[in-house]
Amino acid sequence: MGRVVQGIPKDLVDEILVIDDHSTDSTVVESLKAGALVISRNGPRGVGAAIKTGYREGLRRGGDVFLVLAGDMQHDPAEIPRLLKAIRDGHADYAVGDRLSGDPLAYGMPPVRYIGNLFLTFVTRLMTRVDARDSQCGFTAVTREALERIDMESLSDSWGITNGLLAESRRSHIRVQSVPVTTHYGSRASYIRIRSYVPRMVMVLARAFFRTIRNSQTPCAR
């Protein structure tokens, strides 16, 4: 975790929040030593809940743009300017990392996971009508104005939060742009099980789809 915090470009990022979802390693110590503010929670609640905690705290602290990236070096902090550029240039309110347009297999993405991501991205695009190139990527940046239009209570506390955010983007007229990024898996074993993960994500998408239908508006995302 310390390497991630240290690698974040300080000339672009004013404050770094680390959401400690009941970690059992040295996450807290490393994060504090690297200069981050740590928010610890009692008991693990899931990646979606951690992201929502970070968003709420960021809003409370008056942030203008909110970045999310993994704490295990899966996302390269040096690529943060790519996401911010899409927002700074006025092309997007919500910039989403795109691992799939490159060669994720060369960077260690397991083939089964690659196929699962392609399938879920196809289903997400079909159901949300948002031109997302990688619906499962958690490397993102969103403006304060966009985040304030999103119903965070409707978002999953688990991995489905990325899909829910895309559905909310359509519902709330938030402009989405995919930004090519790389991802590094290394030797870390994934604890996502495709056989259970994919059906669960399809259910998350189905709920988001019907929610969007009930609150249908003309999409502005692209």
Quickly describe the structure.
This protein is an alpha/beta fold and 222 residues long.
Q: Please, what is the average pLDDT?
A: 88
Number of strands: 6
Structural class computed from helices and strand pairing: alpha/beta
Could you tell me how far the N terminus lies from the C terminus, measured between alpha carbons in angstroms?
Answer: 33 Å
Rg calc? 16 Å
Second CATH tier, the architecture of the domain at 65-214: Alpha-Beta Complex
Largest beta sheet, briefly? Answer: 4 strands, mixed
Name of the CATH homologous superfamily of the domain at 65-214 = Spore Coat Polysaccharide Biosynthesis Protein SpsA, Chain A
Q: How big a fraction of the residues is strand?
A: 5-15%
**In which order are the strands of the major sheet placed?**
3-5-4-6
Low-confidence stretches: 217-222
CATH C-level name of the domain at 65-214: Alpha Beta
Overall form? globular
Could you characterize what this model shows?
With 222 residues, the protein is of the alpha/beta class. It has a domain at 65-214: Spore Coat Polysaccharide Biosynthesis Protein SpsA, Chain A, CATH 3.90.550. Helices cover 41% and strands 12% of the residues. It contains 8 helices and 6 strands; from the N terminus they run αβαβαβαβαβααβα. The strands form 2 sheets. A 4-stranded mixed sheet has the order 3-5-4-6, sandwiched between helices. Strands 1-2 form a two-stranded parallel sheet. β1, α2 (27-33) and β2 (37-40) form a beta-alpha-beta unit. It is globular and about 45 Å long. It starts with a helix and ends in an 8-residue tail after the last helix.
